[in-house]
Amino acid sequence: MKFLTATSMGLYRRAIAVVAAIIMVASVVSVAGAPKAEAANRDWLRPDATGHCTWDSVGWWVQRCDVWSDSMGRTIPVQIQPAKRGGNAGLYLLDGLRATNKTNAWVNDVNAARLYEPHNITLVMPVGGAASFYADWNGPATYDLGQSVNYQWETFLTQELKGYVQRQFGVSPTNNSIAGLSMGGTAAITLAGKHNDQFRQALSYSGYLATSMPGAQTLMRLALLDAGGFNLNAMYGSMINPRRFENDPFNQIGNLRNTDVYVSAASGIPGPADANYPWNLAISGAILEAVAMTSTRLWDTKARAMGVNFASDYPATGLHNWAQFGGQLSKTKGRVLDVMNAW
Q1: 69, 182, 204, 264: which one is catalytic?
Q2: Does residue 44 sit within a domain?
Q3: Label partner for 222 (CA 20 to 30 A): which of 3, 14, 101, 233?
């Protein structure tokens, strides 16, 4: 060491310090690396139409992403929980008639993200679409032409969003399940029938599965008006438009022969889970669930006559509420993960 100059001694000490720092960092990474590795597909924000997704307040690794829709001319917020280990399966969860622009009810009224947190499937939860039935509408969705509402939800879900989650979350365009409650259940069966190359599985929880039956359109018209002044005529153009029948789950049964299908609806009779439900909501919940049960049974009868395989569940009690929907989500989790090979 006596042959080293003062300058070279300084360089020597700095080199030792750098090596020591590298060793220290490596030690920290080796300790922290194990738990981070399991969440590696979840712990970073993906790009979206406005820059980057943001962490959603619900937690559970859910990102809120603004996805651009050419068909609707605006960004659509989508809440997405990436698959735990980077799997390519996706589960689309569709909302009910009174969907809000704040959050998808599947992470608000029940916590689907918590339920699926341990698993290798990406949850895809679009926000908005009240009274849309997730269809492509022929005209402005409300009577208020001063605030025109352009609904092109089928195009968004089966083209625009499908491409986005493939690019940014690694979801295969052909390895998806789709589930929904009430209005979303109607759309889940319809979209799975029309796009069976995208959806390998469809689940309807208290959906309306015979929307072109006598009287059904009148009930839909009243429901859409009550949900915010939506105009049923703008959905398909007229009562006799072929798209009205094409978008009825009752007429998509033949396209579901190679799809795993699950349908459920309760009786509309209050049960133990409804004990503390307000009486005024219980009345409407009973009526809505009874209608869902009737239409699902009609769908069931036709599907059996056509030899289409499916599973069904008709609880003896239950209203049209989140006790029913959330219970079905939990009950079918194993089925979804089995079919999608996403445990």
Answers
A1: 182
A2: no
A3: 101
Asked if residue 107 and residue 1 are part of one domain, the reply reads no
Same domain, 233 and 149: yes
166-218 pLDDT per residue, tens? 999 999 999 999 999 999 999 999 999 999 999 999 999 999 999 998 889 89
98-112: pLDDT as tens digits: 999 999 999 999 999
Do 19 and 124 lie in one domain? The reply is: no
Order of strands across the sheet that contains 89-94: 54-55, 63-69, 74-81, 121-126, 89-94, 176-181, 199-205, 260-264, 311-313
How many Cβ atoms are within 10 Å of 115's Cβ, its own excluded? 17
Instruction: Report the predicted TM-score, pTM, of the whole model to 2 decimal places.
Output: 0.88
Residue entry with tokens 């929907």:
325
30 and 53 inside one domain: no
pLDDT tens for each residue of 52-90 = 999 999 999 999 999 999 999 999 999 999 999 999 999
Active site residue 38: no
User: Which of 69, 132, 295, 320 is an active site residue?
Assistant: 320
Same domain membership, residue 185 and residue 294: yes
Is 182 labeled as catalytic in the residue annotation? yes
Residues above pLDDT 70, as percent of the chain: 89
List the domain range (segments joined by +) for residue 206.
49-340
Q: What domain count does the chain have? A: 2
Neighbouring C-beta atoms of residue 334, cutoff 10 Å? 10
264 is catalytic: no
Catalytic residue among 69, 154, 177, 289: 289
